């Protein structure tokens, strides 16, 4: 058992307080000092990932699949959260909510033609991959939008739509729900036009080099995390019901959507 571990979040920073609480819980449960941090990198460009120094992480399913294509089984998905909201039906799933300003006249995707899209990052399943695949399914061209703007985060995309700096964005539904709890006045300016998905929730992953016994200890601890009174309150505040075990194959469909878009020439929306 190592004396310390680093838990890295590649997910939306408005949820970091939850991930820090999970890290503190694992520290208590395993008797290991755990340092939780927010990565400043795209996960596929993070030196810790490229050099196989990453230990534990909260990671979107798409970069998990894409990294394991390059380095098979480098990162092992352990568990994923089940959210409390009824729309998730007790499953470790989420949606990409396609949002517009509440005054935007569009009622269906086709009516967004020629409007301005913003996205968090090109590697995001919720913010980019699902919407790109939706355009492909509907036989819309890559130049469907008049402008495609990189906001850098779901939080910025939400602000840009509310403030009129862009017209639409695909947002992780759990991030949008948290934004509604944190800034209800801001989110009240928005409207969900369409929900894409569901997709498997971003998992907690561990590096294979930590060894199977430790990975199983971490998974087992997270499966009963909602029984820890100290963590229980934080999970409830973050809309999380529990954690359940997940497997690599649960994320295969995300990778297939990515591959289909690339093969169809939709490498980027422009």
Descriptive terms for the model:
alpha/beta, 270 residues, three-stranded antiparallel β-sheet, 10 helices, six-stranded mixed β-sheet, globular
User: How much helix is in the residues?
Assistant: 25-40%
Q: Evaluate the radius of gyration.
A: 18 Å
Q: Looking at the chains present, what oligomeric state does this protein adopt?
A: single chain
Question: What string, H for helix and E for strand, traces the elements in order?
Answer: EHEHEHEEEHEHEHHEEHHEH
What gap, in angstroms, lies between the N and C termini? 48 Å
User: Which band does the percent of strand residues land in?
Assistant: 15-25%
Strand order of the largest sheet: 2-1-3-10-4-11
Q: What structural class do the secondary elements suggest?
A: alpha/beta
Strand elements, count: 11
Shape: globular
Number of helices: 10
Low-confidence stretches: none
Major sheet details? 6 strands, mixed
State mean pLDDT (0 to 100 scale).
95
């Amino acid at each position: 058992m190592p004396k310390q571990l680093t838990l890295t979040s590649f997910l939306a920073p408005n949820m970091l307080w939850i991930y820090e609480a999970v890290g503190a819980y694992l520290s208590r449960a395993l008797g290991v000092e755990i340092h939780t941090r927010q990565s400043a990198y795209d996960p596929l460009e993070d030196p810790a990932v490229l050099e196989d120094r990453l230990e534990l992480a909260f990671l979107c399913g798409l970069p998990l699949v894409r990294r394991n294509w390059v380095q098979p089984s480098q990162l092992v998905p352990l568990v994923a959260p089940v959210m409390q909201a009824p729309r998730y039906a007790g499953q470790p799933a989420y949606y990409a909510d396609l949002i517009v300003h509440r005054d935007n006249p569009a009622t269906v995707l086709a009516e967004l033609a020629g409007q301005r899209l913003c996205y968090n990052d090109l590697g995001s399943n919720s913010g980019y991959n699902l919407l790109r695949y939706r355009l492909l399914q509907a036989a819309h061209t890559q130049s469907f939008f008049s402008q495609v703007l990189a906001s850098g985060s779901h939080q910025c995309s939400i602000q840009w739509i509310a403030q009129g700096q862009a017209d639409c964005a695909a947002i992780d539904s759990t991030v949008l729900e948290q934004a509604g709890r944190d800034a209800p006045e801001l989110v009240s300016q928005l409207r969900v036009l369409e929900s894409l998905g569901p997709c498997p929730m971003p998992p907690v992953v561990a590096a294979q080099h930590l060894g199977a016994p430790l990975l199983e200890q971490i998974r087992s601890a997270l499966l009963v995390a909602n029984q820890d009174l100290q963590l229980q309150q934080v999970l409830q505040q973050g809309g999380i019901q529990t954690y359940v075990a997940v497997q690599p194959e649960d994320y295969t469909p995300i990778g297939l959507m990515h591959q289909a878009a690339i093969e169809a020439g939709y490498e980027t929306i422009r």
